[in-house]
Model the fold of this input.
Amino acid sequence: MAESALGNSTSVQVEKKSSKLATVSKFRELGLLAFIILLCVVVQARNSSFLTMENINDMVTNTAILSILALGMMLVLITRGIDLSIGATLALSGMIAAQTVSANQGLHPILAILLGTIIGIVCGIIIGFLVSRLGILPIIATLAMMNIFRGLTFTVSDGQWISSYQMPESFVSIATSKILGINTLIVIAVVIYLIAFYFINHTRTGRQIYAVGSNPDSAKVSGISQTKILMLVYTIMGGLAGLSGVLWVSKFASAQGDTASGYELTVIAACILGGVSIAGGAGKLSGVILGSLLLGLLNNALPLLNVSPFWQMAIQGSIILIAVIINTLVKRGVVRNNLLRRKI
Done:
């Protein structure tokens, strides 16, 4: 009875916090959507080839892998964690999958995808164990495993690349094939987001993830196993990184030891732009999609505007910083208004 009462109390607290954050998220997402539309109008005015169907399809396809990784990172950030190893996990799973299909030309692409995903899950379980069982800080555990996974990638590949001519056409065509006229990468991303939407919004475990990030102490007292939740989110992150590794190698038709080096920062940036709080307990799928789309749009638009490559990273960084500042100001304003309206 006591645990049930505590559990209900925690749920009420989470729901109250979620309602307050929902107002902030609404303003933030509308602002982000407006900025994306404005940016599209400006770029189209400068380069008429920007909003062509071909370019839009390329842009969305290029954003698919980023959005998949950002989903996993969102779950990790919600629990007040972080995963700096996803680029290395992606490289390791992609390299092993590429080596496997190169040695077995008749291997079905679905088996290669499963292989990469399993490798990623194993990597995620290791990190989850370090964080949840041993109590190592996420940033320390994932930084250490990032170097270990990256080293393993160079070890298994012996420092060699695997190029497109060494891979079977069936594997390379994963990223170029279409399902019902839609690129396979986009279809995979959509399916994953639909599953995630149901999991987050309609399952007890999904709500517990937010509870752990919102108030870990209350969640623990109410009977929520923080260990299991942390193990779960890092395992999901690892599995999505492993899947992305196979998709990445198929898309770029190349497996290298330094594949996706530093890409984890781009993924985190997509989450932050989408309104996911590093302090935990807040984050929406719609925001993550918009954040990923904005970064994909910038990567596509800046070259079309003939912006120097030396300035592109600086511009992206500036936009991220501005977005964070605006988000902070909006959140403070909403919280201040709520306090003023509170009855004493």
About this structure: The longest strand covers residues 162-163.
